[in-house]
Amino acid sequence: MSVAGESGGRAQQLRQKAQEMEQAAERSTDPDERQRLKDRARRLEEQSRRESEMGIGEPM
Questions:
Q1: Which of 2, 9, 22, 36 could lock onto 41 through a cystine, CB 3.0 to 4.6 A?
Q2: Is residue 58 classed as helix, strand or coil in its secondary structure?
Q3: Predicted structure pTM score
Q4: Is the pLDDT of residue 7 over 60?
């Protein structure tokens, strides 16, 4: 697998984890836990975006 493909796969995993965190936040009844999960989801989404961008233009 190419470096770009690996980056894309990792980015996709991070996006999926971020979505799971966001869903968990929506289910949470504790406001502090909800905020913690939303913050973590946002950080994972940002990391996913960075890793996707790193994969663009990489040689195969």
A1: 22
A2: coil
A3: 0.74
A4: no
